[in-house]
Amino acid sequence: MSGSNSPSCPNTGCPLQAEEEPSGQSQPWLQDCVVSLSPCADLLVVAREQKAAFLSAKWRTDDSGREEMTLAVTWSGHLSTDEGERVSSVIAIPLASQKRSSTGRPDWTCIVVGFTSGYVRFYTESGVLLLAQLLHVDPVLRLKCRTYEIPRHPGVTEQHEELSILYPAALVTIDGFSLFQSLRACRNQVARAAAAGSDVVPPPPLAYKKWGLQEMDTIVDHSSVGVMTLCVFDQMKNASILGGFHASVKGSPPAMSQFVTVGTGPYAGFYYAVEGNSQPLLSHVALAVASKLTSALFNAASGWLGWNKNKNEEEAAQKQKPKVEPATPLGIRFGLPDSRRHGESICLSPCNTLAGVTDDFGRVTLLDLARGAAIRMWKGYRDAQLGWLQVQEERGDREFSPSASLPRRHALFLIIYAPRRGILEVWAMQRGPRVGAFTVGKHCRLLYAGYHLMGVNSVTSQGWQLHTQQVCLLDPTTGALRTINIPFHLALSDKKNERARDMHLLKRLSAVLKISLEREAKSVLLEIKHPAIKKQALESLLSNRNAPVSCLTNVTSALHDALKQQGNEVEASLLQLCSSQLKLLQLYSDIQQLQSAADTEACSGNVCGKTHERHQTRLCCLFFAGNFMFWGCLCGKSPTHKVCDTLQLAGISPQQLLSLLMSVWLQREKEVLQKPVETVRNLHTLLIALSNMDGAVEESWDTQSVSPWWQQVRFTCIQSHNAAAALLAALVAHRAVTATPCQCGRLFGLCCAGLQLQSEWEAVSLELEQWVVCVRQLEDVLVLQTLLLVPSPQGTAGGAVVQCSIKMLQEGGTGGIADSVSKWVFRQNMAPERLKKILLRKETQDTGDQKEQKEDREEAEKCQEEADRTAELLLAVCQRFPDSLSPDLLFAHCCWEYVVQWNKDPEEGRYLFIAVEHLKLITSPHIQLGISTMMWSTFIVKRFSAAAFLMEKVSTKRSLMSTAMTSFLGCCVQLLQILMEADSAMEEIPTPELSVEEVWSGAEGPASIAELALEQKGVHYPLVQHHWLLATLLHAAMSFSVKVKPLSLFDSKGKNAFFRDLTTIQLMPSGDMDPGLVSLRQEFLLRVLTGWVQATDDASCSSPAPAFTSLPSDGPKADWWPSLCMDLGSLLQVNPDILRRHLVCELYNQGLDLRAEEAILQVEDKEVLGSHLLVLTGQRLSYSLLHNQNQTQAAMELLARLPPTLCTWLKAMDPSELRCPLVSLSKTSRLVSHLIEMLPENHAQYSLALHLLEAVDVLSLSNED
Questions:
Q1: How many other β-carbons are positioned within 10 Å of the β-carbon of residue 840?
Q2: Which of 175, 503, 511, 677 is most buried when burial is the number of CB atoms within 10 A of its CB?
């Protein structure tokens, strides 16, 4: 419904899909239902008796293909749970979203339902019960809500959110903040219970206030006005009335909550509850205290005298119903007495100062709540329904007003729906006229919520646009839900209401423009009085695509003449707008005639057509205007001098024309490069012609100073991202500064041949020197842009291609060029080693391999050719930027780019790995140290500490996400290793000096990564080594799935030193460690060695990071793990020889005898090792003689001939401890031989070893036979 001056009632709402009612029903079904609409108009609740239906907004496409919003039933069912109870009131409250990205849309909507049993229940949109509470034993009469409103004026009390429930003699209020939090918690708990399949835990009861409304016969409706503070005069008046002559007055007026009720005896009652006090009025305090004392004494006396023999029966009956708190009595302050009038409903205004009341006499009364008085009354509105509409002043209304800087005003309208007359009226407040009336059905329902989203406050509401409807009308006969919108200007007085008439004229003009009637459009435009609407109408006329140019010119000219006749009364801005538009229209006509005479359609017909369409909508658009004016001249199809003369006569400044020419030249780069000779010649002609215009080049300018005219050309080229077109324009402009007409032909040949013109140009002035620098910069940008436009391989990340221009590179600082190339390297997914070969110019092509691979696929050859071309292009860029793209600087930026991309997506572990590889390629230890320090402190240390604490808490065997964690910890180890090596090498190598090319020395912007790296402080080597030690232990634990608490391997000093700034000096562990701690460390290292031996012989064990190319020696199978464990043993005060002996035993246990023999050479205590190997040899022989299912006859005979001592010893061995029991006898024989060499002759088990050697030899000979 549109609430403008138009008396029509268009249906702009959404249809309602409802179930069909029986045809024999005389009254519409909606009249007997309780209806509530969410303020967001996305949920409608219809309830009757025990049933209810929830209708949600959905988009659908009708038969004509038009999309429209509909309300369809999403849930229906029974709401009553107790026998005999019925739905008496319902309200839908949208709850605000707590997400930062929210823009004012509700997160979900809660349906609050009141029942005749006194229960209040809260439901979700799908009918799930969240909370139910019995607040009072009487039926619920009305539910109302108040949400947060931004105070429009300073000093206005900020109202808090609140839900109020009215009973026949009590009023319950629930704080909105606590209700919001409780509902969110209940909804989350229900969702978790549904997902887990468990029962819902009953939520705690809501906290509320209950007031017993006294001294009023019947109450049928109420309004909670909110917290208010009386002025000092009203405070003294009330104190005198209530307390008499000797009443005392407090220093500050108390804050009170105001409630207004309607009913009978009196007709309207005003109640005030003082905030913070349980009892607002002094007259009731004594009564309440006496009542409580009397009840307590009576209960005590009844117990003494034996009067409570039925107490148990009463308690049992009370347990069946929830306990209901008694109401705090609240006396009426004053009222509007009218014994015959019965109030039916009250509707509070959005500003909380007015209220509309309906009664059984068919009257609508307007109450001033601050004064407590009726200030207006309407008659003849029986069974009326009320609503309020608050409209904010439009931004355009104050454009020509002297009070434009003041805050926008608000207008208040009262909506009255009279169902018996079938009319909807709109009245301006407080004493304004009726501004609108609409004929509607007699069985509609006016839906006015009076609140917005719950959960909004002064902080979260900033930047929000609340998408709420204030008043809607539901028509059950057609199923249409119509919104009511009223323009602000209807609240103005009749003298200022000319805008309403102008708005009608504007709508009429819009209808006239659809059929292109020039005469009617002119008359309508001239009738409009308001300047803002007249300007809007003129813009609407000029933006009409269907209107011909002649029509636009005639109408605009008529308006211009009319404005000039008005003299000083007309607005200067409107007159200037008409004048400028007339000039543009005349210019358009003149140039179009020139192009038509020269037959330019063959060259630029599409351009002219597009210009004709788009030029009408955006006459001042830079590109389309320049396209229309100059593209024909650049193509050589339009007379250049005639066009320039026409443009000069139009009054357009040469600077604006130059801007238009450069815009079309740069934007149409592809077309320019298709015909470079012709377009360059025409551009030179146009530049010369524009330069000769009056006001172009200053007459006082000489070649020894900078010309503003040519500076404009340079500035445009510097900002352009089209480097090729900008370079051609710079070359042409450079020559145009000094060249004579006879030199132009030679210039065009040089431009088209691509020769270097700098050698022929002599920098004899500041102007020419700036052109030389500009041309050199554009050449560099062109080469760099060519590299950046190389397409990325399929499947690689990186996003859009970065645009390149001189201005962008200068604003990027000294590292802007390297930063652009590093982003290109990331998009190309170029390996660090390949980049190193290109930068060092060592990349060679093997011709012999190419001959052998002639039969390969053509795609591989194309890929190789593209890679070669890419390498050559990168070399060309590096040659043009030898300082900005030095190897160390480029590797530093590539390292930083990859670690930044890894920080954005930590799941891509290969980014961090490649970043570390780039870091390794930096030759300067000073830059390497600074980059490593920044990487560690910015991106790594937080995740590293989180990983350490996680492994400390979850000390179980790790399987989930072990690959990503292992890769990350491996990169941390390498990063800290690089940091230590760079710190050690800094003293031997001097600090590098960074520089940039002379032509790019004027760059302004942030410092490069290398410069920031050189500014970093030095690190504390022991602290770095301490972190490297922890990272290595974590990496080892993850690589071999060792169950350990890593931080428990360090003492308190060591734990406190972790995750500190590497540049600070910390108290490090020193001296001998606790033996128990050393034992834990030794056990961990022994398990790591065991895991390495198992992984070496395990074919299924692979690299921890198969998703990207890792180092050749990386992974659990790497050969450097044993030596690393030995180094760790030295740092952790663990005896390395124990580790070596354990490694030898584990290798033999795994059946890797050859590796074990190599490891034996490093063992110092051979005697202890021999004792361990003797047991392992016995286990192997025991398996061959006693536990092997394929036992031979010779083995059984040998077992019978063995000495009893040896036989008993072999039977005591447990071969199940061997991971590889099936070992050849030759390997076992060699093991026994080494064992005898290790054991001295006086050893207690030396004779046993000899027996073992003899048994193995006999068994070997029997197998050979």
A1: 10
A2: 503
Residue 857 has pLDDT above 60, yes or no: no
Please give the Cα distance from 252 to 235 (Å, whole number): 9
Contact, 339 vs 393, CB < 8 A? no
Position 730, amino acid: A
| DSSP reduced 3-state for 32 | helix
How many helices (H) does the chain have, and how many strands (E)? 41, 29
Q: How far apart are CA 518 and CA 515, in angstroms?
A: 9
Is the peptide bond preceding residue 430 cis, with omega within 30 degrees of 0?
Answer: yes
Token pair belonging to 998: 């002379």
Report DSSP letters for 1139-1197, one per residue. HHHHHHHHHHHHT-HHHHHHHHTT-S-HHHHHHHHHHHHHHHHHIIIII-TT--HHHHH
Give how far Cα 791 sits from Cα of 787, 800, 827, 897, 906, Å: 9, 10, 9, 19, 25
- What was the pLDDT predicted at 291? 42
pLDDT, tens digit (0-9, with 9 covering 90-100), for 250-285: 777 888 899 999 999 899 999 999 876 543 333 333
- Sheet strands side by side (includes 268-274): 218-229, 255-264, 268-274, 332-336
Instruction: Give the helix/strand (H/E) hosting 572.
Output: helix 572-597
DSSP type of residue 798: -
Q: Output phi, psi for 78, to 5 deg.
A: -90, 135
Query: Which residue is associated with the tokens 């205290």?
Result: 289
Q: Which two tokens stand for residue 267?
A: 């007709």
**Shortest CA distance to 1047 belongs to which of 1060, 1032, 1035, 1030?**
1030
Query: 406 phi and psi, to 5 degrees?
Result: -75, 160
Q: How far apart are CA 816 and CA 560, in angstroms?
A: 53
| Calpha distance 552→616 (Å, rounded) | 9
Maximum distance among all Cα pairs of the chain, rounded to whole angstroms: 138
Candidate from 62-66, 194-198, 794-798, 1109-1113 with smallest mean pLDDT? 1109-1113
Type and span of the H or E element at 280:
none
Q: Extract the tokens encoding 516.
A: 């292109």
Contacts of 592 (CB under 8 A, 6+ apart): 549, 608
Number of C-beta neighbours around residue 982 at 10 A:
24
Predicted TM-score of the model (pTM): 0.57
Average pLDDT over every residue of 300-316: 44
Question: How far, CA to CA in Å, does 314 sit from each of 295, 320, 321?
Answer: 17, 10, 12
Q: How would you write 735-752 as a 3-class SS string? A: HHHHCCHHHHHHHHHHHH
| Number of residues in the chain | 1265
**pLDDT of the residue at 755:** 38
* 466, 467, 468, 472 alpha-carbon torsion, rounded to 10°: 160
Which of 55-64, 750-759, 996-1005 shows the lowest per-residue confidence on average (mean pLDDT)? 750-759
Residue type for 1155, please? R
Residue with tokens 């749970």: 81
Residue 910: count other Cβ atoms within 10 Å of its Cβ: 17
Cα–Cα–Cα angle for 145, 151, 153, nearest 5°? Answer: 145
Q: Residue 1206, Cβ neighbours under 10 Å: how many?
A: 19
Lowest mean pLDDT among 766-770, 900-904, 1242-1246: 1242-1246
48-52, 197-201, 1074-1078: range with lowest mean pLDDT: 197-201
Tell me the domain boundaries of the chain: 29-210, 498-570, 780-843+866-1057, 1165-1264
Instruction: Please state, in angstroms and rounded to a whole number, the distance separating the CA atoms of residues 529 and 505.
Output: 10
* CA distance linking residue 1016 with residue 934, whole number of Å: 8
| Averaged confidence pLDDT in the chain | 79
pLDDT tier for residue 297 given thresholds of 50, 70 and 90: very low
Joined together, the tokens standing for residue 1051 give 């003492």
Give the residue from 1160, 1162, 1043, 1155 showing the smallest Cα distance to 1096.
1155
Over its C-alpha atoms, the chain yields an Rg (Å, rounded) of 46
Residues sharing a CB contact under 8 Å with residue 1025, sequence separation 6 or more, in sequence order: 980, 1131
